[in-house]
Write a structure and sequence with these properties.
By secondary structure, the protein is an all-alpha fold. The chain is built from five helices and no strands.
């Protein structure tokens, strides 16, 4: 996964820029899940360097996706109030 390599070399900002472009074609949740699975596979195969790259990507995912939304111009969800009456 290119995002993991970019994260390792160029950091969160550049990774978020790439994710902003990629999320037009694939769900960010699918990318995160793949990163998680690749981390476990690399760990199982004792590929420490690869495992660290994927772990770094998954660990920083909330920050990456937040910045990717900003780059893509996608507004974050905002809850404007609570319904305390139990009605929809």
């Amino acid at each position: 996964m290119r995002l993991a390599a970019v994260m390792g070399k160029e950091g969160v900002e550049r990774t978020a820029q790439l994710l902003a472009q990629a999320q037009r074609r694939i769900s960010p949740d699918s990318i995160r899940e793949l990163g998680f699975l690749l981390f476990h596979e690399a760990e199982k195969q004792h590929h420490t360097e690869d495992a660290l790259l994927f772990n770094g990507l998954v660990t920083a995912w909330a920050d990456i996706t937040g910045k990717a939304r900003r780059f893509a111009g996608i507004p974050t969800a905002i809850q404007d109030g609570f319904n305390m009456n139990g009605e929809d």
